[in-house]
Write a structure and sequence with these properties.
4 copies of one chain form a homotetramer. The first copy, chain A, is α/β, with parallel strands linked by helices. Chain A folds into 2 domains: 202 residues, Medium-chain alcohol dehydrogenases, catalytic domain (Quinone Oxidoreductase, Chain A, domain 1, Alpha-Beta Complex), CATH 3.90.180.10; 136 residues, 3-Layer(aba) Sandwich (Rossmann fold). Helix content of chain A is 28%, strand content 25%. In chain A, strands 3, 4, 5, 6, 7, 15 and 16 form a 7-stranded mixed sheet that branches. In chain A, strands 10-9-8-11-12-14 form a 6-stranded parallel sheet, sandwiched between helices. In chain A, strand 11, helix 9 and strand 12 form a beta-alpha-beta unit. The longest helix of chain A is centred in the middle third of the chain and has 13 residues. The radius of gyration of chain A is 20 Å and the shape is globular. Chain A starts with a strand and ends with a strand. At the A-D interface, strand 12, strand 13, helix 10 and strand 14 of A face strand 12, strand 13, helix 9 and strand 14 of D. Strand 14 of chain A pairs antiparallel with strand 14 of chain D.
Chain lengths: 346, 346, 346, 346
């Protein structure tokens, strides 16, 4: 089969490799019909993720058709159309039993395209298929559900649900890249009264408006804290969602939040931040971090099927799977291409 | 002043009475600019509520302007435009300290137009004004907020929040009168995937669609349980809201709900229901009852102000306050007049 | 092997039967070293449970040693000492993914000794072994953990946790049989300020005191409602746990609970109760039902291991497994024998 | 009257001052029968709290007898024995309505002995008396309840409840001064399986054992992380409570906690800490800060009254109120005197 293979920092190619095959009794092999790229793939390619071995097939998001299943798989059958989740779940460990699949101790968690071969390929082996794939509802095409492989559950679980958004809340989303936009999109499921998007780029803030932000603030030239104060009687936001992954924006979130509010970190951080406990210790603030668990995937599928959630606006570019190298160029240069998510169809 | 006085079962009139006056240091007197009628007023007039003394001024919903305040009132001043809540809260007892104002042990709870004189009058004395009135946000007229005096917080707190609606849920609302419609309206704040309205009258089901129901079922001629089963893979709804107040509809709710689901009773009941524990004991069902507390009033005001919640569609008729007797005729004959809420302007 | 076989209403015997064997890849076969009897076994023997076929081996509680495992079992190995849970969990269905194993849609739930052969035997086949057995911590003997197969998680999950007991609460436990006593025992994990046990038998009330009840009330001769009123400033209890399974005691619980309180039904009911909604609709009461899920088994094992929970006092009689018919006589005549739980050792 | 007056950094004396008097209609004046010193008093005396004016009477904990009440006070009467809470609550603002009294926007919060005159005096004016004092249950003496003025609710609310301790949990309490010991004491209300106390001083660790710690670790010479790993199968604790108030111990807490666990900060911090988001972003960690709200005071009073909570072991020294200057010497030199709480009786 063909697959996008990581050859070390800065190097990748669309190679001939052996077909993905069943290894464990709980595996499925899935023929990929659609896949996409994630910021994490770029991190791996930069060499930021030393756990990823040279020779690894990248990618952790896919929709496809089951080709074969191991002897212990009972709920998925060859021919089924399935969503392949970015997180694999053994279904047996203490974390999986609490639906914290991202913390799986039984060999799951985020492993696809990271510790095992991934989805940017014609075929992919999916471990723990019973608890790591989701049937695609009849009537939904690949693009309707592909965003549920990672970006939507990540923003929803780690941003919106950890943030505890309630009807009427004021929410700040700091960072309006794909994950920030997904937080803006799914925050609306809980009916906040105003969503304030913060970013350095006007183009991303324009997108934020399209996805539902009520107010946008360019923090390269505007005083975010002053804007928030003016919109919240000086108190601060109920919930601040960090969707960038750098110290400055995290620290900004801790200043934007009102006493009793919540800061939900979604960003991927490469270094520490300063936590101003001398200010925060009295302020009843809750800060959460988290890896996506994908417990919300069935919920999000239901919302897509019922027309409550439209994930298509995230897809800005479409290419053939064989053009995956070009897709990386498009996605990696989002500032110029305006790419949010680039979908590869097989 | 003029007021609508209860003269015993079946008898009421628009009378000259002494002006409402301050009694306690925590009181305010409010000049009513808009009020409305509630199903409970009809119950009192029928004689179903023996606690209500002859001579009582009816009504527990109003918007108005503060005329005077007692010496202990600190947050409300003469001239302020306020929403008068149907529930008074002493703010000091154990229930008020848990925001369960409807259960107030300090002299509050639902008393207006029931145990003390109410709002269908030119002036009304409001006890515990600091914790029982809410400033009307600038820019909102009386009709924009009057529905927040009772019907909206009742449906939201006792139906939607007690029901624990989550994004993606399937919700059945049994009864599509004003309270049921308010439940349908506010349920959408939590983004259920489908709302099923059940009623005996096609006209009310038509209204239910206007307020956001996805599916309507006339249980005078359709098999509700079969419809629900077909829409939920045979499991039942996640949340069933009872908004009628009779045994049959309550019992229906307990049959409609899936294992692990919730039944939220909002209806005012005059008699018992049968609880089929022989079926329910294994089904992980939660049943809640409740009087409105109005803890959600600030939230709902925020949602109205931000345009997230439109309460005007509840208002079907408008009359002068002096026409309150005629308003009762209109409201009491809703089957013919199609009345949902009748607003009286002063 | 030998096993206790159900031969139809009123009839059972200790028979020679074929050895339990692996059927599915997810099965384990366990050699039983200790088992016990449950009130449900008596129901089956009376013929109250028509789903149970003639020829069925009874029993759903055991500790034992794994003899063999199917090809898909990964966390349990031959030779492991395990607790066999009364509830089997497929680990894959929507309910198992929410840890509501009692509602399993994938072939689990309560099936042992009911729909499939059970634990009152020398060997038992346990389906879904990875998610339905629990390793016995080193240093704990069979009697230390056997009560965690059913009675303790049932009382804890369905009574104590569903009841939402908080430190300082006043709790009424109605019914002081084994399940009521287990509720009294595990309620203390949340430090209520007083536990009131209610029963018709002084001997059971005496046991209730031993298990931690602060106040006992014999409702054959005392006015429970008056006692509760005197202990709660007239308000009622925070939490009432029904542990009998008849209409009268359930209805009593709904009268004992304070406004804002919770009624947790644990009892197995054969008929309906009357729900006095005309009183309850205003009282903010929450009523829960439930089958045990056994999500708490790891927690309870930890508490036993750390010495926080002592389950031995439930064991009043010990017999050899081969004496199981005699054990039924002892357990079935608890009024005379004083039996709580009868343990059978192999 | 006599009172302990702050005369600027390092300076205080027991002075003649004008009697405390009613100012607002919601005030009470209380004759102090017992008061105590808090670490915060030492901070003020050091000059760390510039908001505190020279001339201020210190102290924010007391039991006493009501002498007079303002015209708007309805639930407290002269002659009543009351606990004076360290936090005053206006009872009307949005925070008070959520029981977050520590964040009161209406003139309350922590003000006694800080922004207004405090309790280390013969008389004290208590604002918002209806919502800021608690009747002392009959039969309880001053020492039985004085610890509920601050230290117990602080440790319970900000440490134990914010930490979300559940039965069976492993809890680390870092810092075994009075607040840490109070956290150890109240953590047991939720039945953790093991409490690990961490401190630099063996004498405090000895106290920790007396208050209920199962394991003590001196982090001046032991590797706390290794000990925790060995006690938790390498995962980390479920809940870590920071009770020191310096960056090092806070950062230690973030390393001790397992994925999915919680860090509850109780310590008073004078500077920032480093938050290692590069490690924490994937670990599903929740961090909370908070000022005490004293919503739990009625609960804790109930627990004391029922004998479930014994607060006397915190009291190591007793003096006459007039000896308050000596009391500061004893309390301020706890390393030598072994003082936990020094009670002053009038």
């Amino acid at each position: 089969m063909k697959a996008l293979v990581y050859h070390g920092p800065g190097s990748k190619s669309w190679d001939d490799v052996p077909d993905a095959q069943l290894i464990d009794a709980t595996d499925a092999v899935v023929r990929v019909t659609a896949t996409t790229l994630c910021g994490t793939d770029l991190h791996i390619l930069k060499g930021d993720v030393p756990d990823t071995a040279v020779g690894r097939i990248l990618g952790h998001e896919a929709v496809g058709v089951v080709v074969s299943v191991g002897s212990a798989v009972t709920t998925v059958r060859p021919g089924d159309r399935v969503l392949v989740s970015c997180v694999s779940a053994c279904g047996r460990c203490r974390y999986c039993r609490e639906a914290r699949y991202g913390q799986c101790l039984g060999g799951g968690g985020w492993i696809l395209g990271y510790k095992i071969d991934g989805t940017q390929a014609e075929l992919v082996r999916v471990p723990f298929a019973d608890t790591s794939t989701y049937p695609v509802p009849v009537g939904l095409d690949d693009e309707a559900v592909l965003m549920l492989a990672d970006i939507l559950p990540t923003a929803y679980e780690v941003g919106v649900v950890n943030g505890g958004i309630r009807p009427g809340d004021t929410v700040a989303v700091v960072g309006a890249g794909p994950i920030g936009l997904a937080a803006i999109s799914t925050a609306q499921l809980f009916s906040p009264s105003q969503i304030i998007a913060v970013d350095l780029a006007d183009s991303r803030l324009e997108a934020a408006k399209q996805f539902g932000a009520d107010v946008v603030v360019n923090n390269s030239r505007e005083d975010v804290e002053a804007v928030v104060a003016s919109l919240t009687d000086g108190l601060g936001v109920d919930v601040a969602i960090e969707a960038v992954g750098v110290a400055d924006t995290f620290e900004l979130c801790t200043r934007l939040v009102r006493p009793g509010g919540r800061v939900a970190n979604v960003g991927v951080h490469g270094g520490p931040a300063v936590l101003h406990l001398e200010d925060l210790w009295t302020r009843d603030v809750t800060i959460t971090t988290g890896l996506v668990d994908t417990w919300s995937t069935p919920t999000l599928l239901t919302l897509v099927r019922s027309g409550r959630l439209d994930t298509r606006p995230f897809i800005t570019h479409r290419l053939d799977l064989a053009d995956v190298v070009r897709a990386y160029a498009t996605f990696g240069n989002a500032a110029e291409t305006g790419a949010l998510k680039v979908v590869l169809h097989a």
